[in-house]
Input
Amino acid sequence: MFIFSKVKRKLKSYTRWGKYYTWKERHTKVLNKTIYEIFRDYAKMHLDDNAIEYFGKHFTYGQMLDIISDTADSLMSLGVKRYDIITIIMPNTPEALFAFYAVSKVGAVSNMLHPLSSSEEIKNCLKNTESKHIIVIDASYDKVNADLSDTKVENIIGVSAGNSMPFFMKVGYYLTAGRKYKKPHKEMYMSWKKFLALRSENRNIIKDRDVRDNPAVILQSGGTTGVSKGIVLSNGNFASMFYQAGTFWKGVVPGDKILSIMPVFHGFGLALSIHCPISMGVESVLVPQFSAKTFDKLLNKHKPNLVFGVPTLFEALTQANNVKDLDLSCLKYIVSGGDSLSAQLQQKINIYLKEHGANCKVSQGYGMTECLAGAVVNLGINDKAGCIGIPGPQIDVKICEPYSQKEVRDGVEGEICISSPTVMLGYLNNEEETNNALQIHSDGYTWLHTGDIGYIDPNDKMIYYTQRLKRMIISSGYNVYPSQIEEIIESHEAVLSCTVVGIPHPYKVEVAKACIVLKNNYFDTPLLRENIKKYCEKRLSKYAWPYKYDFRKSLPKTKLGKIDFKKLQDEG
Output
């Protein structure tokens, strides 16, 4: 099932940024523990402390350990064993975490999917992972109601978003939304409550002596071909990120709070906004559905010490005006990742923070799911626009000529390459793409080629991000792949050709514009336009829907006869 590069992985433990860290920080070995064990070790010592909050309801570490144990027992009652892949289609709810840690406890693998994924995307992923068991939120029941006969799915475990809500809120949820969702595939369906009732005691969990390189989580990503790829991450990846976070977050102490807006199916959300914080005593306030218009209300209500998000989220904050005299002095860190932070927006956010009493400025982080979201971070080190800071203490970065392994000198732009214990094992069942992304350089180390362009300042060695090498669109922090949209639109019977480009958007930063040429025997009518739009939306996740459909007689070409992407972008 798991196919990775056959090259032996070798990672550096010392970098040119060593002066920023102590000897111990540079050389501490990655913990030989599973994701669950890292959480468990802290939880066992703080059973009565709050670990997570969900709509005002708190769960202590002791309560979480008990429910995780019950969940693990129920998984084994279904026959789940080591390396089985369990698909979890959930937003930020307690059940998503119970399932995530339980899967880790039994040595299986969590395949995290976006609840807004299309039915087709979910089905393809189920086939690729050979998942037998799905844990899905009620709002996405319709997404798993497609024909699953050619998959290996045996059980669909349904979770109501109201399960862990306070009693009266739970009743209200059921009366307004919960009862509207129809159970998918009733012959395979069971409720979360019925699932937990399966548990039995005295089940033996087989433990490996060395778990660092064992696959633990699969997160989804598109690629240069536009085809979704499963990014396989190990226990060691998460253990290393846990260590990196503890090194970076100076002044963060048990009892602090983090507003967990970034989703559990996103590397930034899963590792840095949820797992790492709660495993070091920071209570996670779970936000399953975020509304930018009421961001200031959330901050005012929960008084978090840490907030991580994408640039559009913080831009929305500067425009929110629901709370008079909002006090943000509680903030220790506010970190922007998932997309580049413009100089104008960075300044705008910092002015807002200062006006509302915050003692910190917005910091930038850089990474990608292939290295578990965080590799380089700028926590108050340098305020220059575009500066993403320095790598973690055991992470190395170098800049290479695009599409090569030749390192360029400091100050010269090139492709950002990363060598780190947080770098993925590889792409699921895709050895070719794995070997394209993970390359052994002449120094003998494995380097992740990110597809992003940047440079290292020759004086202070700060790293700067400048642009994307790939033709990828980042809209509100989500990766949107033009070739995937093009393929779907061109499969419509009326479409001759389609080219998708990214165009600026005041809130989402960038959105997709689909430039479409119809076949000669089809006429451009409002009815056909609407038909193509619905055809596209049915087959794509909502965040990937084109913002604009541009119907034209032909597409502009360069002198070499290639599509002129720049002209299409400039037209807006």
Q: What stands out?
A: Residues 473-571 form a domain with the GMP Synthetase; Chain A, domain 3 fold (CATH 3.30.300.30).
